[in-house]
Amino acid sequence: MNLGVTRFEKVAVATAEPAIAVRGLHLSYGTVKILCGIDLELPRGRALALLGPSGSGKTTLLRTIAGLEAPDHGEIALNGQIVANPQRAIKLAPEKRGLGMVFQDYALWPHMSVARNVGFPLEMAGMGRGAREQTVMRALDRVGLGDVAHRRPSALSGGQQQRVGIARAVASGAQTILFDEPLSNLDRELRESMVDEIAQLVAELGLSALYVTHDHSEAFSLAHEVAVLRAGQIAQIATPEDLVAAPSAPWIAEFLRLGAILPVTSGQAPLPGVIAPAGATHVLLARRALSVCPPAQSLLRARVLRCLFRGEDFQLTLALHGGAEIQITSPQRASPGSELGLHVAQDALRWFHEPTT
């Protein structure tokens, strides 16, 4: 299996109907609003990541699309078929929506073999034994697990168990898969390798994918577009590249750890010699805008707080004037407590015209 893909790369055939379309979706638990007017579309053959902090509504949105939660208002359509619309009393059962789901806890039965785990939902749906066994082996072969079909889940690695979950999702014939933080239970090294593996599997199988995560690097690696949620609303939908280059709000830049957010006071930029645009309230001093230089040649100076060797370079945590911190990479080691000069690429600064809240 070639694991060199770091983005779902399946190119979808143009189609009039998206795999998932959500329009004006609202959901509340009592008086607490959880989803507030969600609009999004997932084209067929593409991947969309739902990214946000805990409590932002991303998992509730996924569960509502799956049919595990009922919206108060709005509409959900899958491949052009309306599956939820409370105003029209439409609520299609989860098992009839044609979706596959992959969970963070694998949701595997420990007493069953890998093959039985994949085939059990098909058995419950009434599929005959012969057809079921063929379908299961075809699904396991597609995810590279055909040779472990008779093992128990406990004999597999965490990554293999997650692939069993994917096989079970695609065995049903689902072309749209919902991933609910599938890598959150894995250690960092395995999680990074599984990002590549999931991307490759979804691309090769030609699936559409909605992927919930709180890890921005995971979202950036996997998805064509990323929807950033906060307080039940989508704050920004963009490609990973555009999110990094042009976050729409200061809090998004902070959440994505793009750099330091500095205030603009009385129209004065916090950087010597830099003129703030009219009306700017904050500026993002992004990591990509900075490089180490001799203090005498610098626009900005910083004190080294920490220096960590990362194999090919050093990660420096720096304290800027005013107390803001930022992390940058450097080819050379720097001693904690020492002062460094920073060159600032002014064309890489991102100005905001709104408060951080």
Describe the protein.
With 357 residues, the chain is an alpha+beta fold. The protein folds into 2 domains: 226 residues, Rossmann fold (3-Layer(aba) Sandwich), CATH 3.40.50; 103 residues, Nucleic acid-binding proteins (OB fold (Dihydrolipoamide Acetyltransferase, E2P)), CATH 2.40.50.140. It is 24% helix and 31% strand. The chain contains 8 helices and 19 strands. It has a 6-stranded mixed beta sheet with strand order 7-8-9-3-10-11, sandwiched between helices. Strand 5 and strand 6 form a beta hairpin. The longest helix is centred in the middle third of the chain and has 18 residues. The chain is globular and about 80 Å long.
Short note summarizing the structure:
With 357 residues, this protein is an alpha+beta fold.
SSE topology string:
EEEHEEEEHHHEHEHEEHHEEEEEEEE
Distance between the termini: 45 Å
CATH architecture of the largest domain: 3-Layer(aba) Sandwich
Whole-number mean pLDDT: 87
| Strand segment count | 19
Please bin the fraction of helical residues. 10-25%
CATH T-level fold name of the largest domain: Rossmann fold
SSE-based structural type: alpha+beta
| Major β-sheet profile | 6 strands, mixed
Count of all domains: 2
Instruction: Enumerate the strands of the largest sheet in spatial order, edge to edge or round the barrel.
Output: 7-8-9-3-10-11
CATH class term of the largest domain: Alpha Beta
- Count every helix, treating DSSP H or I runs of 4 or more residues as helices: 8
Poorly predicted tracts of residues: 1-15
CATH superfamily of the largest domain: P-loop containing nucleotide triphosphate hydrolases
Outline type: globular
- Strand content is 25-35%
Alpha carbon gyration radius: 24 Å
Pfam families: ABC_tran, TOBE_2
Organism: Thioclava indica
Keywords: ATP-binding, Cell membrane, Ion transport, Iron, Iron transport, Membrane, Nucleotide-binding, Transport
GO molecular function: ABC-type ferric iron transporter activity; ATP binding; ATP hydrolysis activity
